[in-house]
Amino acid sequence: MAGVTDEPNLPTPADGDPDAPADPESWERPVADLTETEDDARRADALRAGLSEYDLEDEDLALLESPEGEADHAGPAGPPPVLAVVGRPNVGKSTLVNRILGRREAVVQDTPGVTRDRVSYPAEWAGRDFTVVDTGGWERDARGLGSRVADQAEIAIALADAVLFVVDAVVGPTDEDEYVVRMLRRAGKPTILVANKVDDQRGEADAALLWSLGLGEPFAISALHGRGSGDLLDAALALMPLTSEVAGEIPEGGPRRVALVGRPNVGKSSLLNSVSGGERVVVDEVAGTTRDPVDELVVLGGRPWWFVDTAGIRRRVHQTSGADFYASLRTQGALEKAEVAVVLIDASVPMTEQDIRVVQQVIDAGRALVIAYNKWDLMDEDRRSFLEREIEQQLVQVPWAPRVNLAARTGWHTNRLVSALDVALRSWDTRVPTGRLNAFLGELTAANPHPVRSGKQPRILFATQASTRPPRFVLFATGFLDPAYRRFVERRLRETFGFEGTPISIGVRVREKRRR
User: Fold this and answer.
1) How many domains does the structure of the chain reveal?
2) Are strands 82-86 and 128-134 parallel, antiparallel or unpaired?
């Protein structure tokens, strides 16, 4: 059947023309006509009434009776206060953050330097919401990557309403700690000195030595076991305002959440730095620099967006260990919380199995999808022709995904992400009225009926869109529909109603006629 093999005629980039694939208008089609005529509505009512002759389950009835409509998306009321956790490496900052959150969020390992970026988490204590920011270990004479980690810790202090300065009570005050104290005094932020690793009363004597730092009485706690953490949070809340005096206002309605995903070292952190207009996250040639998801509110195209930088997705999560294992789990969690994912692929090197797996992970999570080919400035003409062939062969399952070619490090074409994100999110939110959907399927099945199998020809009785985000359709049929025919229906749905940039799911419920 010719219709089954037809592919949607989506725009493809011109060979050798770096500007063609990045043109936002190349994804834009006329907005699909979703108006439902009276004839469409009457047809749908008649088909729905015809289902009464079939054996339906309770979940079928619930689906058929549910009203069509979209959920309201209420945004946060305002910016909560920000509490930064700083200190030199391996004093237990991330362990304390996990204690504050009441769950394992920040990556923790018995090795200095696991946390590298400043990472924000929403937290709550005694009925008050606030944001806790984990930072990398601060070192005075750090070089290279360590120097950029220290820069992020200093930025976290500048953007905080209050600071928890964590010191290892077992080691005692060090020259590094005294330098951090001077930096905190220059910043003028309300600060609490936290003496960590005080597991019993004997450790409190070690904590008393920290008076010499000049920040007042140290709070003796054990972040690992929770000793003294409640009193510490009470004191921190007393220092913080009800709403942040540093963070910007969050617009009503809530910015859309965008996850930057991809294998290690494809330029996710560079892209976040480019769209945010500053050195927001640590960038290094060493693969795997980012380990915690990093949230940043940025303005792009005149609108706010939440961009989330994630750790690179490696070949097999179960083959990783330590910090990389937990970082992979955090990446999956960040993807689940996002609305749209930008999958970055390094255009300057051959596409790998990992790239394909990342794309599939986004589809499995049901998120809208944009594919960004980064490092376009590093490609030569020969590589471009190979890349087009790789896309045709290896990404054949996602011809519907908007594509942007860019160079994150220089900012080339990063502004064109907005059009691609809008297309993907609009499709992700699209709902096809039931009458319009059944009219479409009636015309489709009349022109291209399902093949006869074992002397029977399955018929589609009725269809409805069960949900959006992503769009999910349920077809009631008299028999099993071949996978090829389902793919054919999906392709024609995309051709008719758009759905560029979003996975769609088609479920089939086989129902038999009620015996009399």
Assistant:
1) 3
2) parallel
Res 153: pLDDT:
66
Q: What is the pLDDT of residue 421?
A: 96
> What pTM value is reported for the model?
0.61
Q: Which two tokens stand for residue 471?
A: 């769009």
Give how far the C-alpha of residue 492 lies from the chain's centroid of Cα atoms, to the nearest Å.
Answer: 29
What pLDDT score does 244 carry?
A: 79
Alpha helices in 26-171 (DSSP H): 38-50, 58-65, 93-101, 145-158
How far apart are the C-alpha atoms of 349 and 263, rounded to whole Å?
13
Residues 369 and 436 in one domain: no
What pLDDT was estimated at residue 381?
Answer: 83
Grouped pLDDT means (10 residues each) for the chain, 516 residues: 34 39 50 78 90 88 72 48 87 88 60 48 85 74 46 72 91 85 86 90 81 90 90 93 68 75 88 78 45 69 86 51 48 77 94 89 91 93 89 92 94 93 95 94 95 91 93 94 94 94 94 83
Q: Are residues 201 and 300 in the same domain?
A: no
Residue 484: how many other CB atoms lie within 10 Å: 13
Q: What is the pLDDT of residue 140?
A: 57
Long-range contact set of residues 108-114: C-beta below 8 Å, sequence gap at least 24: 108/326, 109/322, 109/323, 109/326, 111/322, 111/323, 112/137, 113/89, 113/137, 113/146, 113/149, 114/291, 114/323
Residues whose CB falls within 8 Å of the CB of residue 443, separated by 6 or more in sequence, listed in order: none
Determine the Cα–Cα distance for residues 168 and 146; give it in Å rounded to an integer. Answer: 20
The contacts found for 10-19 with CB under 8 angstroms, 24 or more apart, are 10/399, 10/400, 10/500, 12/388, 13/388, 13/403, 13/405, 15/384, 15/385, 15/388, 16/381, 16/384, 16/385, 18/376, 18/384, 18/405
130 and 228 fall within a common domain: yes
Is residue 350 a contact partner of residue 325, using CB atoms and an 8 Å limit? no
Asked whether 387 and 379 are in contact (CB, 8 A), the reply is: yes
Residues 215 and 264 in one domain: no
In a domain, 227, yes or no: yes
User: Given this model, what pLDDT does residue 323 score?
Assistant: 41
Does residue 15 fall inside a structural domain?
no
Does 212 lie in the same domain as 94? yes
The verdict on 333 and 298 lying in the same domain is yes
Angle CA 329–342–412, to nearest 5: 135
Residues in a beta bridge with 256: 305
